[in-house]
Specification:
The protein is mainly alpha-helical. It has helices at residues 18-25, 44-65, 72-89, 96-103, 108-125, 128-152, 174-190, 195-217, 223-244. Helix 6 runs antiparallel to helix 7 and helix 6 packs antiparallel against helix 9.
Length: 265
């Protein structure tokens, strides 16, 4: 049978849209994909503030003290020693014993007890992610603190008696750094978010302040040493726990039937 003239010629196909060609080429995906949802990325205003403060403190420490006791390092040391000397002059014979007792909260046996005790508690509670992060926090804090001490090589305060145990270089204060990081880890791994954690932050701040003042009054730490140590001890655990164990996904809870590390969303 003869075809009409207008149907005898094959018509060309319409060009396919580029997005249609990409859809044909791409592999088929399930809906939902089965992949875990991304973690909430909320460091909050306080987290950003502590990060900036720590970066400024570390930058100033390297800029001022990396070349030894010369230039601005001499001025900073004179100011620090004046503050330490004033605090030491307020300490009478009857206050040395109590101050040493407060300063022992930053001793190595207390710090090691906090380190391994918290690891053991998290192991019993099976909070694996919190446990791993605490170990990472301890290692990062140690590496950064020891690295800064080796670079700055700052001596202990001049002109006062060292009336408590001490060791190594002064900047940053190693006991204050580890005590701060340990208390922050306890808050973010064992204390539920909300009123209890907020109250714990004030208690931890008061405890760190007392230990720092005691160590300065006993002549073993200077204000700059303590300030840099607190900045490192707060910032590293704060950022890591907020980033990798957000409360929305890994809540710290002690209610029956709900695990503190289980995503129930």
């Amino acid at each position: 049978m003869d075809l009409p003239a207008d149907r005898s010629r094959p018509t060309s196909a319409l060009p396919a849209h580029p997005s249609l060609r990409e859809a044909v080429r791409s592999p088929r995906r399930r809906r939902p994909t089965g992949a875990a949802p991304p973690l909430p990325y909320r460091l909050q205003t306080s987290g950003i503030g502590w990060l900036l403060a720590a970066l400024v403190l570390i930058g100033l420490t390297l800029a001022i003290f990396a070349r030894g006791l010369r230039g601005p390092a001499v001025t900073a040391t004179v100011i620090d020693d004046a503050v330490v000397g004033w605090l030491a002059s307020l300490v009478g014979p009857g206050l040395v014993g109590p101050l040493r007792g407060v300063a022992r909260l930053g001793s190595w046996w207390v710090l090691y007890t906090l380190l391994y005790g918290l690891l053991l508690v998290l192991l019993v509670l099976r909070r694996w992610r919190h446990l791993l992060l605490w170990w990472v926090v301890a290692q990062l804090a140690g590496i950064l603190t020891v690295g800064l001490m080796a670079i700055t090589q700052r001596p202990r305060p001049f002109g006062v008696d060292l009336r408590s145990s001490w060791g190594g270089w002064a900047l940053p204060s190693l006991p204050v750094t580890y005590l701060t990081a340990s208390l922050m880890a306890v808050l973010y791994t064992l204390v539920p978010e909300g009123r209890w954690r907020n109250t714990g932050k004030w208690v931890a701040a008061a405890l760190i302040t007392l230990v720092a003042l005691a160590r300065m009054a006993l002549g073993v730490d200077a204000p700059t040493d303590v300030l840099v140590g607190v900045g490192i001890g707060v910032t590293i655990p704060l950022l890591l726990f907020r980033r990798f164990t957000p409360n929305e996904v890994y809540p710290v809870s002690y209610r029956r039937g709900r695990s503190a590390h289980l995503d129930i969303g």
